[in-house]
Structures are given as structure tokens and as C-alpha cells.
Write a structure and sequence with these properties.
about 150 residues, mainly alpha, de novo design (two linked rop proteins), 2 domains
Length: about 150
């Protein structure tokens, strides 16, 4: 298949277009694993430095604040839900019944997860991935509107 406008392979059928654009979402989702807060060297270094502060601060309060911070920036739950929504989109696409509205609702859920990833992203490259996923999702939504 030849590369079409926007870097997507040209599509033979509407279904193949949905699948191709869905792949772009999946690639973005896979790339987000590089930005997990627990894997970032700065986080681990900061934790080691802060751990020595227990002499000067309340250990329980520090642990509460640390847990709050980790939950705020942890994106694993969103990644799992986004992956599940993407899989459900593909499963629904294969059904033999009319699925246009259902695909629209699934696309809305995908958008919510992408937005949550973006709001939790504390890294420039992660923001770029989120924008790419939003772009791919908008193309899916446009195609859904054209198909309905």
C-alpha cells in the first residue's frame, strides 16, 4: 500500500482505514511505557535523597505525600483502560451488525483516556505522544461521521 496523506497507508476499505488509524493509537500507547514515573532516573535519585530527610520530618506524613505524588503521576491504569478500549474497538469493528454509534461511543472513551494521560504527563515527549494519539483519534472520529 502506498503512503497517503498524513503518513497513513492508503486504504482499500473503510474497515482497513479504521484498522490503520487504530494502529497509530496503539503505537502511541506502547511508547508511553517509557515515561512511567517509577522508571525515571530522576525519581529514583530524588527518592534516595529524600529518604535521608526522615530525621527532620514526620515519616508518616512524608509517606502520605509520596503516595499522593505517585498516584498523581502513575499512568498504568489509564494505559490498561486505553488498551482495553482499543481492543474493544477492533472487536466491535468485526461484528456483522451495524456498529457506527457504538464505535463512536468507544472512540469517546478512548479520547477520555488519552486526555487523562495528557493531564498526567510531566514530560515533553509524552505530551507529543498524546498529541499524536489525539490526532489519530480525530481521524477515526471523522471517518466514523462520514460512515454514519
Amino acid at each position: 500500500m502506498a503512503e497517503g496523506m498524513h503518513g497513513y497507508a492508503s486504504c482499500d476499505t473503510p474497515t482497513s482505514c479504521f484498522i490503520e488509524r487504530h494502529r497509530a493509537l496503539g503505537m502511541g500507547l506502547r511508547e508511553t511505557s517509557h515515561f512511567d514515573v517509577f522508571l525515571q532516573p530522576g525519581f529514583q535519585c530524588g527518592w534516595r535523597k529524600a529518604h535521608g530527610l526522615f530525621v527532620y520530618i514526620d515519616k508518616n506524613r512524608f509517606e502520605q505525600e509520596l503516595i499522593f505524588y505517585l498516584e498523581k503521576f502513575d499512568i498504568n491504569e489509564e494505559k490498561v483502560r486505553l488498551g482495553n478500549h482499543c481492543n474493544y474497538f477492533l472487536e466491535t469493528l468485526e461484528l456483522e451488525e451495524p456498529v457506527g454509534k457504538k464505535l463512536g461511543f468507544i472512540a469517546q472513551e478512548i479520547g477520555r483516556e488519552i486526555n487523562t494521560l495528557g493531564s498526567k504527563a510531566n514530560h515533553t515527549e509524552m505530551q507529543k505522544l498524546v498529541i499524536g494519539m489525539k490526532d489519530a483519534l480525530e481521524r477515526v472520529k471523522e471517518q466514523l461521521l462520514n460512515a454514519l
